[in-house]
Design a protein that fits this description.
The chain has a single domain, classed as TIM Barrel (Alpha-Beta Barrel), CATH 3.20.20. It is built from eight helices and eight strands; from the N terminus they run βαβαβαβαββαβαβαα. Helix content is about 35%, strand content about 20%. It is an alpha/beta fold and about 220 residues long. Helix 5 links the parallel strand 6 and strand 7. Helix 1 packs parallel to helix 8 and helix 2 packs parallel to helix 3. It starts with a strand and ends with a helix. The protein has an eight-stranded parallel beta sheet with strand order 1-8-7-6-5-4-3-2. Bound molecules: D-xylitol-5-phosphate and zinc ion. D-xylitol-5-phosphate binds next to strand 2, strand 8 and helix 7.
Length: about 220
């Protein structure tokens, strides 16, 4: 499976978002990770469907929309209509996760379930057949710039085993939080397919070089 770098625009300069997107394109980013926060499910507040729609209009890179919102199932259509290419919602906030995953897929969008660091893999085990990807939070959702929670390594291994059990070698394991050039290659060896990184990319002297370096480290 192709390994993917997913820069999180949470750490980008929103006053210059178009040039940030051009920079990501030039650097070879694979998908753009968009963190939607509602000030309720998480204490932080970011943006919603109108901004996703505007991003969609200026780039052909796939948009990976990570919903950190309460009642996500009430507004899935808004994100699908806005142009999400990947759409994930939190297991902890969902009422009918299987149906919602199937609904997202029926709209031609990649469907994912996200779990917080304290939620065990077993919670989403039965959802594996319905997911295109599973997003493991390796920090507490809400803010960029936190340190990678080491216990996530065990969860990555466990999920990798389940991919075999369920004969879902195509299931994408995405990890989000505290990923940088120092830990990305060991995460890749553990079986991570898609790497979300915010501060490690945008808060460096040379984001283009950082992305290129990260891409090399996961080859
Ligand atoms: C946190 C977000 C992340 C965040 C990661 O709740 O889901 O996508 O941008 O930021 P870093 O890479 O700085 O940990
Ligand atoms: Zn995220």
């Amino acid at each position: 499976m192709n390994k993917l770098i997913a820069p999180s625009i949470l750490s980008s300069d929103f006053m210059n978002i178009e040039s940030e997107i051009r920079m990501l394109e030039k650097a070879g980013a694979d998908i753009i990770h968009c963190d939607v926060m509602d000030g309720h499910f998480v204490p932080n507040l970011t943006f919603g469907p109108p901004i996703i729609k505007q991003l969609k209009a200026i780039t052909s890179l796939p948009l990976d929309v990570h919903l950190m919102i309460s009642n996500p199932e009430e507004t899935l259509d808004q994100y699908i209509d806005a142009g999400a290419d990947w759409l994930s919602f939190h297991y902890e906030a969902a009422v009918h996760p299987r149906q919602s995953l199937e609904y997202i897929k029926s709209k031609g969008v990649k469907a994912g379930i996200v779990i917080k660091p304290e939620t065990p893999i077993v919670a989403v085990r039965e959802l594996i057949p319905y997911c295109d990807f599973i997003l493991l939070m390796s920090v507490n959702p809400g803010f960029g710039g936190q340190s990678y929670i080491l216990r996530t390594n065990d969860k990555i291994k466990e999920l990798n085993e389940l991919k075999k059990t369920f004969k879902r070698e195509d299931l994408i394991i995405e990890v989000d939080g505290g990923i940088n050039a120092d830990n990305i290659s060991s995460l890749s060896e553990l079986g991570v397919d898609a790497f979300v990184a915010g501060s490690a990319i945008f808060h460096t002297e040379n984001p283009v070089e950082t992305i290129k370096k990260m891409k090399n480290l996961i080859k």
